[in-house]
Design a protein that fits this description.
With 476 residues, this protein is mostly helical. It contains 19 helices and no strands. Its main location: nucleus. It comes from Lichtheimia corymbifera JMRC:FSU:9682.
């Protein structure tokens, strides 16, 4: 392909430039007056980061013993009596179901009752599925011991090993997707990275085995009932969305090929009420974003080619940029829950930076490379900087409960990480102007306030804030 060398496209090629700059300008003016004041970033009511927790540590030791036991079903009464199982299902349908609207509550309850009553020969799928659901739901409980999530996750993984030899079904795809997501939410997520990727591969293999890509090979032939058919359609798109979002947060290439998909989007059923329709609207929004994420991840070039875009790459860059801008404007009139809208905005902001990613490679790039990119791609640099400012301000303006809630989602936490990296880069780029460096420091400190606020409930945020406090704070 022909290289355009130092081609610098006009700003109109990137519609997000004006859109993001108009938002970031007000934010920068709001914070620049606080530069010389103590507490220049937003203050949160936070607790001191603790390295140990007495009562929780004791419970963790108890759970550790239980985690070494063989898979058990029904759940042990000491941990999961029926009343608690129902409580966890309620939490699941409040917090998780809007993202994975595949199974209605009545069907879920029927399967749980059936599984609990079939003590002698339970299906391996359903114990694994329900333990995963319980583990995910525990993440959103203020009263339950969070080590219960580890116990349920261990049981889910154990039952998953039993089920691996069985032929996959449609429900296998959903069970595996939830299990992989549950590993991402685990407080020991870093110990589960390889396992998460392995289960993500199993999802793809199950989809291929079932022929879920096409309605003609699977769904239309297997199901006569409209509800069953729609459930299969939604399960496929749940797996698709998870697969592509995993690529955002871990860099894993999407396994599901967009060009081979011949399956309709989810649709409303006659039995859906207003709440169901709002959840479906949010789900369709996430599907659309996941499709765009797949295109952007396939577009991203290697570091060596970042400063010499081809004509084809420039066209795709402009096209994806325009799509992100259109989706952000569409959210201005969306009727979904405010936190769901915030979630989608943060993912789109994150994708915008990943699209203009030359300035995310600071760790591997040399100084002369950074200088060259600043001269040849000024619009991408400005878009990355302004988008990072908008991400940080969006997150830090949330109430503490909302902040903790939204950052439980790996895609949203990744947006904060991406923004922090851009801020840090802008404090250290050679020949960067003083105003740019000051703004970088202001918003980097602003992002550190978010990590400090998240530290009591997020081990990842606690680690980042602790590292900053011990090794970098003095230089700021």
């Amino acid at each position: 392909m022909d290289s355009l060398g130092s081609f610098s496209p006009p700003p109109l090629l990137y519609p997000s430039g004006n859109y993001i700059s108009s938002i970031a300008k007000e934010i920068k003016e709001k914070h620049v007056h606080r530069v010389k004041k103590q507490g220049s970033h937003k203050e949160f009511n936070t607790n001191t980061i603790a390295t140990t927790h007495g009562p929780e540590k004791a419970n963790e030791n108890i759970m550790e013993k239980d985690n070494n036991t063989a898979p058990t079903w029904p759940p042990l009464e000491a941990h999961l009596p029926l009343s608690r199982q129902n409580e966890l299902l309620d939490l699941y349908y409040i917090h998780v179901h809007p993202l994975y609207p595949a199974i209605d509550r009545n069907y879920m309850q029927q399967q749980l009752d059936k599984c609990n009553n079939n003590n002698n020969d339970p299906s391996a799928l359903w114990p694994s599925f329900f333990y995963t659901v319980f583990s995910m739901a525990t993440q959103y409980s203020d009263s339950l011991c969070h080590n219960l999530a580890d116990y349920c996750l261990h049981q889910a993984l154990s039952w998953h090993q039993i089920h691996k030899s069985q032929s996959p079904t449609i429900m296998t795809v959903l069970a595996l997707t939830l299990l992989a997501k549950c590993l991402e939410l685990s407080k020991k997520r870093y110990h589960h990275v390889a396992r998460t990727w392995k289960i993500a591969d199993e999802i793809f293999q199950a989809i291929q085995h079932l022929g879920l890509y096409s309605t003609s090979t699977c769904i239309d032939d297997r199901y006569d009932d409209e509800s069953d058919k729609e459930r299969a359609v939604r399960i496929f798109w749940i797996a698709h969305t998870y697969d592509h979002f995993l690529g955002i947060t871990t860099g894993r290439p999407p396994a599901i090929d967009e060009s081979k998909i011949n399956i309709p989007l989810p649709k409303s059923l006659q039995t859906d009420d207003e709440s169901d329709q709002l959840q479906l609207e949010h789900f369709l929004g996430l599907i659309e974003i996941s499709k765009g994420a797949g295109r952007i991840m396939q577009l991203s070039p290697g570091p060596a080619g970042l400063c010499a875009h081809s004509i084809y790459a420039e066209a795709l860059l402009s096209s994806c940029d325009a799509w992100i801008c259109k989706e952000l404007k569409r959210l201005q009139t969306a009727t979904a829950h405010r936190l769901h809208i915030t979630e989608r905005r943060l993912i789109l902001y994150d994708l915008l930076i990943l699209l203009h990613k030359p300035f995310l490679e600071d760790g591997e790039a040399k100084e002369d490379w950074n200088k060259k990119c600043l001269k040849t791609l000024p619009h991408s640099h400005r878009i990355c900087t302004d988008t990072a400012i908008v991400i940080t301000d969006t997150i830090c303006e949330l109430a503490l409960d909302d902040l903790e809630y939204i950052c439980r989602k790996p895609e949203c936490f990744h947006a904060l990480l991406t923004a922090t990296r851009i801020h840090l880069l802008n404090t250290s780029i050679p020949d960067n102007n003083a105003a740019e460096m000051i703004q970088g420091k202001i918003h980097f400190l602003h992002s550190m306030a978010a990590y400090e606020a998240l530290a009591p409930t997020s081990s990842q945020a606690a680690g980042i804030y602790s590292l900053w406090h011990r090794s970098m704070k003095q230089s700021f």
